[in-house]
Every structure is written in structure tokens, then in C-alpha cells.
Write a structure and sequence with these properties.
By secondary structure, the chain is an alpha/beta fold. It has 5 helices and 8 strands, in the order αβαβαββββαββα. α1 packs across α2. The chain is globular.
């Protein structure tokens, strides 16, 4: 994974604004960023866990409302196929991630190469995040599906 983290890091230039999702590989990228304060990278994140890591590492953490554009968004995944369909099964920030993604110019998945397969791994559990106003509708639809 170190090579993948290095590839992601090498995309960055001074004064870049980025978004970091959640997960262990994003955490590794955050640690790499902390070793290069001279780049003055601005970081925003939909993940409270990642925001805390950024604070602990003294990264330049900003709120998404402070970013006019976000050049890169980095996130991990649990499975990815050759058509670049991605399964993100763990965590609970999927809805917020979409909000951040809309401001991102380039969205990059940081994943170990062995997760890339011809089809999505059926052993990876599918996570469904439901926002409060939709709970009744989703429960109704699930009952209809059996």
C-alpha cells in the first residue's frame, strides 16, 4: 500500500485543497501529508474520525464551506471492479461523502490492488445508510422485497 499512498501523494502540489474520506488507507495518506507541512495542503473531510486524525497531526483542517473548490478527493473502498464500480461497505458517512464529492474536481480511490476484480466481491457486505426522513420509505420497500 505504500506505493499507492506515494502515488496519491505525488499528485499534490503546494496550496492544494483536498478532501479525505475515512478508513485506514486515507489515514496513511494523512500521516504522509503531516510529514510535508511546507506544501500547505488544506484538508476537509466528511468523517469526524478523519477530522480528528488531521487535528492530531496538525494538518490544515478547514470546513467544506471554506473551500471554493477541492482539487482532489481521496477515499478508500472495500471492493472495486474493472468497470470502476465501488463497494464502500463500512462506516456511516456515505451521504456526507456525496456532498463533498460534488465539490471535488478529481475523485481518487485509494485501494490495495488485490481488491480490484472482474466483479464486485459478493463477500463484502453492502452497507445502506438511511437518513432520518427516509427510514419509513426504506422499511416499506424492504418489506415489499421480502
Amino acid at each position: 500500500m505504500d506505493n499507492v499512498i506515494d502515488l496519491a501523494f505525488n499528485l499534490l502540489h503546494p496550496d492544494t485543497t483536498i478532501s479525505l474520506g475515512g478508513g485506514s488507507n486515507v489515514k496513511k495518506l494523512a500521516h504522509k501529508l503531516s510529514q510535508h507541512p511546507e506544501l500547505n495542503i488544506k484538508v476537509c473531510s466528511p468523517s469526524e474520525y478523519t477530522r480528528q486524525i488531521c487535528r492530531d497531526l496538525n494538518l490544515n483542517l478547514i470546513d467544506i464551506t471554506e473551500a471554493s473548490t477541492i482539487e482532489f478527493g481521496f477515499d478508500g473502498c472495500d471492493a472495486i471492479d474493472f468497470d470502476l464500480n465501488v463497494l464502500k461497505s463500512n462506516g456511516g458517512i456515505h451521504t456526507l461523502e456525496k456532498e463533498y464529492t460534488y465539490k471535488v474536481e478529481k475523485y481518487i480511490i485509494i485501494s490495495p490492488p488485490e481488491r480490484l476484480k472482474a466483479s464486485l466481491n459478493p463477500n463484502v457486505q453492502l452497507c445502506l445508510e438511511v437518513v432520518s426522513p427516509s427510514v419509513d420509505s426504506v422499511l416499506f420497500a424492504a418489506k415489499q422485497l421480502g
